[in-house]
Specification:
Blueprint (H helix, E strand, L loop, with lengths): L1 H41 L4 E3 L4 E8 L3 E10 L5 E8 L4 E5 L3 E2 L4 E9 L5 E11 L5 E11 L3
Parallel strand pairs: 2-9
Antiparallel strand pairs: 1-3, 3-7, 4-6, 4-8, 5-7, 8-9
Length: 149
């Protein structure tokens, strides 16, 4: 009988020890999650465009070249990094004023479209990938291209 009581006592002690460890671990995890969020907020830039991200060029002839600059500002305390950039078609060139934009500085994305091979309604994009929460930003040119024969 004493062995039975001893066995029950050991189970109760074991369970209570494990409960305490689990609660300590949970407290530690919550603290760690808060720390991760704090670090994540500090390590991520904030980009804000100063104007619309779509430019409508209206109706143009196919012998026209369209250029548009889209200005943005780094509103964070850490540098904004342009990690990658690309345009949606070969008729478009995407130019960045800076790949690293320091805190509170302004930069731009310039899209240049050659309408020579375009006809009708046209929409082209330029995309950048950054070290912000949103990651991807898209700017676009839209309008109608008339062929000239």
């Amino acid at each position: 009988m004493n062995k039975y009581y001893l066995f029950i006592l050991l189970i109760v002690i074991f369970i209570s020890c494990n409960s305490k460890k689990a609660s300590d671990l949970k407290s530690h995890l919550v603290q760690s999650e808060a720390d991760v969020k704090k670090v994540a907020n500090e390590a991520v830039s904030k980009l804000r465009f100063l104007d619309k991200t779509t430019y409508s060029f209206g109706k143009i002839n196919s012998d026209t070249i369209i250029k548009k600059k889209f200005f943005f500002v780094n509103e964070s305390e850490i540098p904004l990094l342009i990690l990658d950039s690309h345009s949606s078609c070969n008729c478009t060139e995407l130019l960045l004023s800076n790949k690293i934009v320091m805190s509170k500085d302004t930069a731009y994305i310039e899209l240049t479209m050659d309408a020579q091979r375009k006809h009708g309604y046209t929409r082209i994009y330029g995309t950048i990938i950054t070290n912000t929460f949103q990651k991807y930003y898209k700017v676009s040119l839209i309008g109608e291209v008339n062929s000239i024969n």
